[in-house]
Amino acid sequence: MMLRTIGLTFKRPLHSSGRLLSDFETVHIQNTNRYKKLLMEQGNFTEEQSNAIVNLMSDAIKGGIAHVSQDLAKRERLTQLTYQQRVDFAKLRDQLLIADRSEFHNIQNEYERVRNDLDKLRNKLREEITKANAGFKLDLSLEKGRIREESSHHDVQIKEIDTRIDQEVNNMKMQIDSVKTQVMQWLIGVCTGTFALVLAYVRLLS
Predict the structure, then answer these.
(1) How far, in Å, CA of 130 to CA of 134, rounded?
(2) 32 CB contacts (<8 Å, ≥6 apart)?
(3) Is there a contact between 54 and 32 (Cβ–Cβ < 8 Å)?
(4) Which subcellular locations apply to this protein (predicted)?
(5) 94-98 average pLDDT score
(6) Beta carbons within 10 angstroms of residue 43's beta carbon
(7) What is the C-alpha to C-alpha distance for residues 37 and 43, in angstroms, rounded to an integer?
């Protein structure tokens, strides 16, 4: 009630633009003597009481203004921090996008390089397999030819051995037949001689 009657005014009014007061010593109250007179005339206060009330009110107002100023400073600081964080986030997002694009291009290039290497390796492996198959077929053909030659040679040797065996068998048969003939001739000669001796002995006895 008393404050409405007094009607305090300030040397530096607060604007809606958020002008900050870092030190409440910069705040001054005008016409303090007028307020003292009003207190003494309308409130029936003594001069000492009026001085004490005006000083208390001045200190209270200065403290409130300082608190509001600090709060406004904190809000402005938070606004600055928020804006700075947004700027930093935008920069970080741009950097991440650039890094992501760069990483994507690097991965794509690496994929292309690996695919080209795989194609080269596949072609080289196909060529090696073709060469190996050709060499294997050639070796197999040569081995078949060698086996045929050896088989033919073995067949010739077997035929020669069969021929020699047949010849030996025929020779042995001829030798056996010759021996048989000789034995028969010898037996006939022995029998004839024996018969002649017997006849001669019989004649001598008769």
Answers:
(1) 6
(2) 54, 58
(3) yes
(4) Membrane; Mitochondrion
(5) 84
(6) 13
(7) 9
The owner of tokens 């100023």 is 69
Query: What is the predicted pLDDT for the residue at 117?
Result: 92
Residue 10's φ and ψ, nearest 5 degrees, are -120, 150
Number of continuous H segments (helices) and E segments (strands) in the chain: 3, 0
Locus of tokens 């921090």:
81
Q: ∠ CA(84), CA(85), CA(91), 5° rounding?
A: 90
Q: How many whole angstroms separate alpha carbon 149 and alpha carbon 72? A: 111
How many other C-beta atoms lie within 10 A of the C-beta of residue 100?
10
**CA-angle at 24, arms to 22 and 26, nearest 5°:** 90
Q: What residues form DSSP beta bridges with 29? A: 10
Strand locations in 79-162 (E) = none
- Token pair of 3, please? 């404050």
Mean pLDDT of 150-170: 87
CA distance 32 to 51: 9
Q: Are the beta carbons of 4 and 57 closer than 8 angstroms?
A: no
Count other Cβ atoms within 10 Å, centred on residue 36.
Answer: 19
Residue type, 8: L
